[in-house]
């Protein structure tokens, strides 16, 4: 489990970390002892001297740093325990980089695992339970060993260790569980710690299987400069998978994935607006869920750009339009309208970031919608597709299921066939396929076999969507949302007319 090469051992001087260091002396590995002085006690500097002496006696290099953790936590307005943990791992990572270490070893035990599981359950966290034996370079080789076993080992070796008196302070949540709750649990249930640690292991194995599936239903809407996700794949998924995906959404913006926030995000999928910690505004607009940060600087630099102003107009080829209406027509949420960069002379807006002049994706999707309208005129389900390679339109097609009397005559398949014939090839690497409705599994398979590089669709297929309904994993870029209103309106109109007597 521990990689080859140099190892950094985090040693506080407590029994667990001292036992870890002694165990490392039985290996031929090069070890660097790292100690962070949290400055939480007047005599904490003595701990650093004690650990230094131990490292020197064992023949290991020693690295130390002193940080006033309480002051830093107060300045940040953050929890002391969380700040201490963050600073400790940051220090260990810095030492590892200095020595080119392949792993950072920390001495968490089965007892620590049990405490962590209890703490996470009581805090209502939505994340996976417990600490992992390995995450990145951080390795916890003692996670299945009890604290009492390590104490027996130290006593057998005649090795002393330090006792941190702050561990007795039950004002800290973890110390309260350690001193007050777990002893009572063990008195009634002797295997409580082992059972909690085992539960964490089961949870983590399930995470390994389910997290990639949850990631698969998080379809990023790349039209926007803030985190944005397509709503339909999330709503179509089972509740457990959806909540796991929403947990990943929160983790991506560094918000603690508490169960309450996940439940609120579920309501946001149905249109409820709310605000997350750090000022993140959550809004749904059409088929997209937006997470809009409170801080400016949202957009990349754009020379000559400014923010929208009252009275701004966009000058289109045949008309002029108020900028605020133009942005609304393109599905920009109200909270983003005031931040959207433009290039203008006075109140005359010539360019709107990513929206005007019209981007290629929008232009090609308009061609796909034109094909969809041709299908409607012929009594076919209005779906159109366009294949583009190197900025050239290779093929355009629309549904011909009724005309050809074939269930396989979907727009994507017909367009692919035309494009392949035109190219004289059997595959289309690098091609982009634009389609007005999310492809079904049959078309998804053909697109994969043709090795296209990207699929862009207008609106999700809630009946047979390859990703939204069947949750297939695309081997190509997969994007949705362009002209979704127009595509959805076209489909609704067609089926409404069919149902009307």
Q: Would you report the number of β strands?
A: 19
Radius of gyration: 29 Å
Shape, principal axes of CA atoms: elongated
Q: Which band does the percent of strand residues land in?
A: 15-25%
Give the mean pLDDT: 91
Largest sheet: 6 strands, mixed
Please identify the structural class as seen in this structure.
Answer: alpha/beta
Question: Which helices and strands occur, and which strands form pairs?
Answer:
Layout: E1 7-10, H1 15-24, E2 31-37, H2 44-58, E3 62-66, H3 69-76, H4 80-99, E4 103-105, H5 110-123, E5 134-135, E6 138-139, H6 147-157, H7 173-188, H8 192-216, E7 228-230, H9 231-236, H10 239-252, H11 259-268, E8 274-275, E9 281-285, E10 288-292, E11 313-315, E12 320-322, H12 323-329, H13 334-337, E13 342-345, E14 348-352, H14 360-377, E15 384-389, E16 392-398, H15 401-404, H16 411-423, E17 432-437, H17 441-449, E18 454-459, E19 477-480, H18 484-499
Parallel strand pairs: 1-2, 1-4, 2-3, 4-6, 11-14, 17-18, 18-19
Antiparallel strand pairs: 5-6, 7-10, 8-9, 9-10, 11-12, 13-14, 15-16, 15-17
């Amino acid at each position: 489990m521990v990689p080859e090469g140099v190892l950094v051992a985090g040693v506080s001087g407590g029994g667990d970390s001292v036992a870890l260091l002694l165990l490392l002396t039985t290996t031929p590995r090069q070890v660097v002892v790292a100690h962070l002085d949290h400055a939480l006690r007047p005599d904490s500097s003595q701990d650093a001297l004690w650990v230094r002496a131990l490292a020197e006696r064992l023949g290991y290099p020693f690295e130390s740093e002193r940080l006033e953790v309480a002051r830093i936590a107060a300045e940040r307005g953050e929890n002391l325990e969380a700040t201490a943990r963050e600073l400790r791992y940051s220090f260990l990572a810095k030492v590892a980089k200095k020595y080119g270490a392949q792993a950072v070893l920390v001495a968490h035990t089965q007892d620590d695992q049990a405490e962590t599981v209890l703490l996470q359950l009581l805090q209502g966290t939505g994340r996976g339970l417990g600490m992992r034996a390995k995450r990145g370079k951080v390795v916890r080789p003692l996670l299945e060993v009890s604290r009492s076993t390590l104490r027996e080992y130290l006593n057998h070796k005649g090795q002393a260790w330090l006792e941190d008196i702050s561990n007795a302070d039950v004002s800290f949540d973890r110390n309260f569980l350690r001193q007050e709750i777990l002893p009572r649990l063990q008195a009634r249930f002797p295997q409580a710690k082992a059972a909690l640690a085992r539960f964490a292991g089961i949870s983590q194995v399930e995470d390994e299987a389910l997290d990639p599936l949850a990631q698969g239903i998080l379809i990023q809407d790349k039209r926007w400069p803030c985190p944005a996700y397509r709503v339909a794949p999330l709503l179509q998924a089972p509740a457990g998978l959806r909540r796991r995906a929403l947990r990943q959404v929160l983790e991506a913006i560094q918000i603690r994935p508490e169960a309450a926030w996940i439940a609120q995000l579920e309501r946001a999928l149905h249109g409820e607006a709310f605000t997350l910690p750090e000022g993140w505004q959550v809004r749904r607009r059409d088929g997209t869920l937006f997470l809009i940060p409170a801080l400016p600087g949202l957009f990349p630099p754009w020379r000559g750009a400014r923010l929208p102003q009252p009275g701004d107009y966009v000058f289109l080829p045949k008309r002029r339009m108020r900028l605020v209406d133009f942005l609304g027509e393109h599905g920009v949420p109200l909270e983003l309208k005031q931040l959207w960069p433009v290039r203008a002379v006075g109140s005359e807006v010539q360019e709107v970031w990513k929206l005007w002049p019209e981007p290629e994706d929008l232009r090609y999707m308009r061609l796909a919608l034109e094909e969809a309208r041709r299908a409607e005129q012929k009594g076919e389900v209005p779906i159109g597709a366009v294949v583009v390679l190197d900025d050239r339109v290779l093929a355009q097609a629309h549904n011909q299921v009724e005309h050809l009397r074939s269930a396989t005559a979907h727009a994507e398949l017909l367009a692919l066939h035309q494009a392949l014939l035109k190219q004289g090839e059997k595959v289309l690497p690098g091609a982009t396929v634009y389609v007005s409705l999310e492809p079904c599994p049959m078309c998804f398979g053909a697109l994969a076999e043709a090795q296209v590089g990207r699929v862009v669709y207008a609106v999700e297929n809630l009946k047979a969507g390859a990703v939204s309904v069947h949750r297939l994993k695309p081997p190509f870029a997969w994007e949705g949302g362009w002209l979704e209103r127009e595509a959805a309106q076209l489909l609704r109109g067609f089926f409404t007319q069919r149902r009307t007597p």
